[in-house]
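Me: I keep going back and forth on a fold encoding question. No explanation is needed for now; the record alone will do.

Assistant:
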Amino acid sequence: MNSVEIFNETETKLEELDSLNGLIDYAIKAENVSNVVFNVIIVDKEKIQEINKNYRGIDRVTDVISFALEDNEDIVYEDFRLLGDIYICVDKVFSQAEEYGHSVLRELSFLTIHGFLHLLGYDHMTDTDEKVMFKRQEEILNGYGITR
């Protein structure tokens, strides 16, 4: 049984959040994982900058930050996988949707899947890893019908 909670910690009404559950279920199946637990948390630019500064030492706004709990080998669960938290900046969702010329739903979906794949251990620190991760993001989004 999967448990995914979505929290909007902003004053911004984001109707597209209602569409995320289906996408997340699809992504979980596409990645062939089960019994996962994680959160998607929508925050404003001030909060994500604070998180970025405190945990990554980077004092600027970013679009998404994932905290993958499985990176911590001291945490072991037998009946489920506690993946962690995905923080998404609502301000970046809107500005990047406009910048890239696609919908708010597309941008929110992209950032959610990007964060989810980070929780599963994907990264983009090398060109090869970036190609693998970004290809997988597009496969999941396109497979679910979220296109540019």
